[in-house]
Amino acid sequence: MGYYKFSKFDLLTLVIVFYVVHCENDFDRVLTNDRISLLSFMSGISDDPERALTSWNASNTHMCKWYGVECDMTMSRVVKLNLSHKSLRGIIAPALFNLSHLAILDLSGNFFEGRIPFEIGYLYELQELSLSFNLLKGSIPEEMGFLQKLTYLNLGSNKLIGEIPKSILCNGSSSLQYFDLSNNSLSGEIPLESQCELKELKFLLLWSNQLVGEVPLALSNITKLEWLDLEMNLLTGELPSKILSNLPNLKFLYLSYNHFTSHDGNTNLKPFFASLVNSSNLKEIDLAGNRLGGELPSIIGDLSTLEQINLDTNLIYGPIPPQISNLVNLTLLNLSSNLLNAIDLSLNNLSSSLPSQLGSCIALEYLNLSNNVFEGQFPASIGNLPYLKELDVSFNHFNGKIPQSVQESSTLKLMNFSYNNFNGNITNKGSFSSLTVDSFLGNTNLCGTIKGLRNCRRKRARHFLIAILLSLVITPVFCIVGLRSKFRRQRPVLSTKSIKDEKETHEEEKYPRITRSQLIQATGGFSPSSLIGSGRFGHVYKGILADNTPIAVKILDSKVAEEISGSFKRECQVLRRTRHRNLIRIITTCSRPDFKALVLPLMPNGSLEDHMYPRHIVKKGLDLVQFHASVQGDVYSFGVLLLEIVTGKRPTDVLFTEGSSMHEWVKSCYPNKLEPLIEEAIMRYAPSGLSADNRKIWADVIFEMIELGLICTQYNPSTRPTMLDVAHEVNLLKQYISSPSIEDTSIN
């Protein structure tokens, strides 16, 4: 009996020992296999300028501590690889997809070339995949349909061609939430059918491709969809009203620059807007560039959550319905380049300045803006409307002179400028010859020859000189006092004088002639090794001309080049005349029907992005004291730049995670949640060893920069300040932070 017990115990011990040894061997084998897969992937990388993979070559560094690698130690497997935005060049080696437990793979923002290997279908555990902003070409492998656990898929901004594999969208999985194939050259129809189960999909981005056909009806089954972007394709058919009526969670709808039509033979827009009434969170609609016909229906006023509507470049006609005033959250309404013939927005509480884009409504015959709170100067472009017959702007707060273009109009017959703050001389000539004083009542600063108006008196030169001297004294005082108060106001900042372009004193040189073959030779055939940047509109290559002149060549994408063909030469002439120490002057252009390029001087110190987002972890960046603003330029772009500098983020960094724009993301923190952003900015830009007082000054300046950035990026262009005002405020901030109380304010 004792012998039996000993044998049983001995056998159990042997089993345990065998199991432990077997597990240890499996543990080592698994780690070795994953390590081999990563090293094989690294062998396909030809350039690592930021030395991101240095730790991968260190023999004494455990694989799970390599840069970008994360492991699940409970099963000793690699589960995450993130090498995004490291400027890596090369191919994606198929061995990478032997990492069978990989859950997250992010290689976005690099220069990977070649095709996406079909072996990617082996990553059965993959949940998030981003290969966006690379140079990948070829078709999307069908095998990606095996990735049934995907929640996030982003292949946008590559050179992918061919049709979208049906297997990606219709593989029996319902976990996908984000799907982005935008900015490629994909063709064919959108492969959605009724059996596709995309119950969790919230983002569908397919913009800037060559997709054809109608929007598939199966899209109406994706009831959680929030963001639908199909703009800049070749889609046809009626606007997808039946589909949209089943999308109650829709927030952003972009269908611009396709070939859609409205209902009933391109004459009826009502079904489309009616289909959106149940989308209670809808914020933006973009239908521009479709040549849609019909009148704007009154039901548009029921879309009360709308913030932006872009309907420009269509064939919309008739009046603007008064119900549009119900859109109390609206910040942008673009109706330019249509056939509208009547706009009646009277008896509302509309405020701010009047957008000059109204001058694009070339078919406009009747414009009634009376009894509102419009302010600022009246746009001269409205006086140039060729068919305008009646104009009523009474009972507002317009100021300045009534534009000469209004008086010179040959079509205007009835006008009412009463009860505003207009000033200047009104003569009884032109379209004003039939008017009486009743059209100008309540403007105490008007004078002229119309009966009932007071006569204009010539001011003495001495009074004029005194006014100039007073303005020279008072203006700096107001500017300094207004440093902190100006940005607190909710009303728009207006400039009372336009900024005239400085006249050229020398005749400009003509474009030097450079042929396409010369550019090919200079850039090595536009080789990948010469590529220094890529974007939505094309690629930039470095090169050297035959005379040893270093150049940068921006090649416009063929689709973009085709769209702007008519204005390319004109835009280049404008850019060539532009003079500013911070702007690169165009050397020349190369324009053919199938090829358009800008030739620029090569900047040896790199791009603005290199200074804003330094590649190495050192205290390096923009010098806040040297930072300045031109008095002319794009206010919105300058505001985005300000927010980028302060936050250290690109505008695209917050798009998916926050579901919004840079402006909205920063605005959500303003004013009580800005402290973390301000502290991070101080750490990046301020010199070390600041005293408490100087640190407070830095915090104040950064806070002011955030406010300035938010004001410059407001959705409504008319509520943004002018660049003259912005330049002035930036100059005051420079003076404030450069005061003697602050030592060594440069950012090294």
TrEMBL record:
<feature type="transmembrane region" description="Helical">
    <location>
        <begin position="464"/>
        <end position="483"/>
    </location>
</feature>
<dbReference type="InterPro" id="IPR000719">
    <property type="entry name" value="Prot_kinase_dom"/>
</dbReference>
<keyword id="KW-0433">Leucine-rich repeat</keyword>
<keyword id="KW-1003">Cell membrane</keyword>
<dbReference type="InterPro" id="IPR001245">
    <property type="entry name" value="Ser-Thr/Tyr_kinase_cat_dom"/>
</dbReference>
<dbReference type="GO" id="GO:0006952">
    <property type="term" value="P:defense response"/>
</dbReference>
<dbReference type="Pfam" id="PF07714">
    <property type="entry name" value="PK_Tyr_Ser-Thr"/>
</dbReference>
<keyword id="KW-0675">Receptor</keyword>
<keyword id="KW-0067">ATP-binding</keyword>
<dbReference type="InterPro" id="IPR003591">
    <property type="entry name" value="Leu-rich_rpt_typical-subtyp"/>
</dbReference>
<dbReference type="InterPro" id="IPR011009">
    <property type="entry name" value="Kinase-like_dom_sf"/>
</dbReference>
<keyword id="KW-0812">Transmembrane</keyword>
<dbReference type="InterPro" id="IPR032675">
    <property type="entry name" value="LRR_dom_sf"/>
</dbReference>
<dbReference type="InterPro" id="IPR001611">
    <property type="entry name" value="Leu-rich_rpt"/>
</dbReference>
<feature type="signal peptide">
    <location>
        <begin position="1"/>
        <end position="23"/>
    </location>
</feature>
<dbReference type="Pfam" id="PF08263">
    <property type="entry name" value="LRRNT_2"/>
</dbReference>
<feature type="binding site">
    <location>
        <position position="554"/>
    </location>
    <ligand>
        <name>ATP</name>
    </ligand>
</feature>
<dbReference type="Pfam" id="PF00560">
    <property type="entry name" value="LRR_1"/>
</dbReference>
<dbReference type="GO" id="GO:0051707">
    <property type="term" value="P:response to other organism"/>
</dbReference>
<keyword id="KW-0732">Signal</keyword>
<dbReference type="GO" id="GO:0005886">
    <property type="term" value="C:plasma membrane"/>
</dbReference>
<keyword id="KW-0677">Repeat</keyword>
<feature type="domain" description="Protein kinase">
    <location>
        <begin position="526"/>
        <end position="748"/>
    </location>
</feature>
<keyword id="KW-0325">Glycoprotein</keyword>
<dbReference type="InterPro" id="IPR013210">
    <property type="entry name" value="LRR_N_plant-typ"/>
</dbReference>
<dbReference type="GO" id="GO:0005524">
    <property type="term" value="F:ATP binding"/>
</dbReference>
<protein>
    <recommendedName>
        <fullName>Protein kinase domain-containing protein</fullName>
    </recommendedName>
</protein>
<keyword id="KW-0547">Nucleotide-binding</keyword>
<keyword id="KW-1133">Transmembrane helix</keyword>
<comment type="similarity">
    <text>Belongs to the RLP family.</text>
</comment>
<dbReference type="InterPro" id="IPR017441">
    <property type="entry name" value="Protein_kinase_ATP_BS"/>
</dbReference>
<keyword id="KW-0472">Membrane</keyword>
